[in-house]
Amino acid sequence: MKKTEPEYYPPVENLLDLIYEHYTENNPVEKNTVAGKAAKAKEKELEEWLRGLEGMDKLVDDYVGDKIPLWEKIMDRQGTVCCTWEKTAFEEGLKVGIRLMMEVYSL
Description:
The protein is mostly helical. It has one domain (30-106). The protein contains three helices and two strands; from the N terminus they run H-H-E-E-H. The protein has a two-stranded antiparallel ribbon with strand order 1-2. Strand 1 and strand 2 (67-69) form a beta hairpin.
């Protein structure tokens, strides 16, 4: 009999967080879609613009204490903000879907 290891997700605060973690783990974003390619192009455009600004080559601490260029730190923060907005939009979409289902079944 094959032993199956349990899947562990990051700490979650509520059921919506767990659903989001499970969904994104099992449905990775495809970089080859039209939307994925457009997002990648915008990200590259932002990176090039940042790298062209004076002082962006200054070294700053990353999350583990290594030194990275300031432009890279800004890109990392920008990615974190985008992920937070994406998660919020996903969770709000689930809430709307649940409300709609409840209304339909109450008819």
